[in-house]
Batch of 2 targets.
Target 1
Amino acid sequence: MRVSIVIPSWNGLVDLRACIASIDRQTGVEVELMVVDNGSEDDSVAWLQERGIKFVSLPRNLGFAVAVNLGVAHTEAPLVLVLNSDTVLEPDCLEHLVAALLARVVRRAGSLGGVQPRILQLVRGQAGDPDDPEAIVYSLGQALTADGRARETAIGQAQGPSPIAPREIFGLCGAACLFRREAFESLGGYDEQYFAFYEDVDLNVRARIAGWKFRLAPEAVVWHVGNAAWNAGFE
């Protein structure tokens, strides 16, 4: 299976290097990589050119939603992984995500719009162990409260010693999520009125209204710093 990976990036070259290095280590899946640079003032564009990585360079920061939508439009694979630049994937992550999505699509006649990995908190300079019960969770899927607020399930908690079971979730965390292209495009992508934050909440709500479902695939693991580009962009 071929997967388009779309990475929006802004002044985060150190994280971007680590992210793409982890993509290079993926097994069992053919990758179509697209980086959308949101007007970085560091050496990101020069590095992408030097590495021969496919990218689109924007004149200024137009926001996460614009960057992702543009990246998806410039790719063709039937599955699309939206990925923050401050993430690192375990080597078998993408293979597990694809297997989880395709297996459910076959059994449920295509109602599954996307899957999310187990997202753990990344500390730069430290090698995380996905089996460490003390590893801190960043997201086990997005939840929606009764009063309309969104939250990342289990954020800030130790993952514990017990295996985390696959399950249906309300929505996908925008830091790392695999969509069927059909689902993403039928929804018109992320709403570009959201410059940064809540664009994933909005998409999840619209997707559920349209009949799409989402699942957690915990055997797939992504490590995430969290807000790294946002913080670096204003330093």
Note: The first strand starts at residue 2 and ends at 9.
Target 2
Amino acid sequence: MSATELFELFFDDDMFQHLTEQTQLYAHYKNEADPGISNSEIRCFVAILILSGYNHLPSKKLYWDMKDDVHNNMVANVIRRNRFIQIQKYIHMADNTEINEMDRVWKLRPLMNKLKEKCLNHFQPVKNLSFDESMVKYYGRHGCKQFIRGKPIRFGYKMWCLNTNDGYLINFDLYQGKDPRGDENFDKLFGKCSSPMVLMLQELPRQDLPYIIHIDNLFTGLNLLSYLKYLGFGAVGTVRENRISRSCPLTNKKQFKKKPRGHIEHIIEKNDGILLVKWMDNSVVTIASTNDGVHPLSSVKRYSQQEKKHLMVSRPNCIASYNNMGGVDLMDQGIASYRIGIRGKKWYWPIFTWFIDVAIQNSWDLYRKKSQRV
């Protein structure tokens, strides 16, 4: 399949037809004259959005400007400027007469569900999966907007993402505080950050496969790892000091910092069979695992300020396994390279364009795997 055909696995005729119907319906809802927007025009509209990701201009109107340094023949010949602006004004994903007050993103939910279904259907099972947060840039006002210090994108919507280790997005959901589709029991047991992951794992098409879930210290808890082990999933994740029982015989973090680089301590929780490992690197690293052990040890190169040279430091096997955590970051990197450049005023516009960016990223991942097989 070509790159375009792979993209249409995620944005297929059903998706475009849904956008066409809801856009027409929204124009009638606003008591405007019938714009007569067709399926082919919606396709042209999405195509121009994709083009803006690699041919970025300061303003969308410049694609139709007649100056040689900005004019784009491909865009100008396929659709008029005012028609493009009209479609952007009315573009819609849900019926405004069917409001779900419990769901803050009800305007996006129908399209979101369709895309999630396609991401799951075309998922090529691999062993290592990672769960993490991804930010969608947004500076306006909305109840779901978040601020995360230290992130490349600090302001915006937070997406919970389940990815493969090479960046394919399997499943996702938008964080909105109390999730109307969530499970209150999971929220109480695992927290609001971890319960979406448990729900996403239950939607995997092949749950009988030996998946290994990689998570960071925001999500990792011993009760969560025990539950994942009960479901048949392996799990590896960094864990915060305050989530370890005080009765645990491992050296506390303050004293462990005095140990030499490469020092390892480990223990297995008797009740749950969870391995806890502390490893001294540049700082203290604490790992909880139900899949990988301490052995076999590997070696990593580190620079010693005292000896002014590189040294080889022992590293536990579970730490090496945790390096498969970067699937969400790889997806973010791919999206950031060619993110749609045309901006809109609606609060849901950045999420809608993120859907298209995700479809491009997933189709590229499938295309790359196909090329490797050939």
Note: The CA atoms of residues 64 and 80 lie 8 Å apart.
